[in-house]
Amino acid sequence: MTKIFLVGAGPGDPELLTLKAHRLIHEADILLYDSLADPRIVAMAAGTCEKIDVGKRCGKHSASQQQICELLVASATTGAKSVVRLKGGDPMIFGRATEEMAALDEAGIAYEIVPGITAATAAAASLQKSLTKRATARSLHFLTGHGAEGGLPAHDWVSLTRSGGTLVVYMGSKTLAGLAAHFIEAGMDPGMPAIAVENASLPTQRVFPATIATLPRLLSATTTTGPVLLLIGEAMSETDIATAARQLETAA
In degrees to the nearest 10, what's the CA dihedral of 145, 136, 115, 11? Predict the structure, then answer.
């Protein structure tokens, strides 16, 4: 019987794959992978594996979510022993796993979830900054900056601001100006440390330290091609803000 595995590819660095993910990718008969999956990870599949690029990425979809769900269900009827759906980061954190699990449940197809390292922890590790900090950041919030209609989601900005924890925003580079404005209107100090990290864990990683008030300008003056993660909160306060000021001067 065919079994489907929803596998987390991690933040990008192949060495951050779990051992289980590595084994399942190598054993897969069919591999459906996102564009965020590093090519070196996709290359771990056997030469006989059928590799299908579903190219799903924020703002750039070569396959709709419905089509991906249909492909998953169809793959289970091909006689393949193992089908791996490879998703960037962790499947259960902004990975649209709910829709895919629902489609498989409806079709009566068995599946297993294999977690992966999410970009937030990879970025924190590379920055050597804990996302939580005693007496400073007692909570951690993962948010999406990209709503279903393409705009900024309707978060409870006041509650998030009052939480005093670290805020991690996925897919927020395009809506950063509005996001920052909402936070400041909700009472966040304009000088709150904020860092943008592009391509976390990869050799092409870039870090943009700033404040919640200055980060939108800094990022808009820079061309980014990889996924960008935003880290906001006092736990990021040791960042060299002077670096951000120099970058702003250069961009002006």
Answer: 60
Q: Which CATH architecture has domain 119-251?
A: 2-Layer Sandwich (3.30)
Residue in 13, 56, 87, 90 annotated catalytic:
56
CATH of 3-114, one of 1.10.10.10, 3.30.420.40, 3.10.20.30, 3.40.1010.10: 3.40.1010.10
Task: Tell me if residue 34 is catalytic.
Answer: yes
Considering 13, 29, 34, 90, which one is annotated as catalytic?
A: 34
pTM for this prediction: 0.88
Across the strands, what pairs with 207?
A: 197
Position 159, amino acid? S
Each residue of 187-225: pLDDT tens digit? Answer: 999 999 999 999 999 999 999 999 999 999 999 999 999
Supply the pLDDT for residue 147: 79
In the chain, beta strands by DSSP E: 3-8, 30-33, 50-53, 56-57, 60-61, 82-87, 111-114, 140-144, 166-170, 193-198, 206-211, 228-232
Mean pLDDT along residues 36-49: 95
Pick the closest to residue 24 from 39, 1, 44, 40 (CA basis): 44
Q: How many CB atoms within 10 Å of residue 161? A: 20
Per-residue confidence (pLDDT) for residue 80, from 0 to 100: 86
Q: Are 199 and 205 in contact (CB under 8 A)?
A: yes
Interior angle at CA 117, CA 57 and CA 51, nearest 5: 50
Average pLDDT over residues 45-74: 84
Residue 66's φ and ψ, nearest 5 degrees, are: -65, -40
For residue 6, name the pLDDT band (cuts at 50, 70, 90). very high
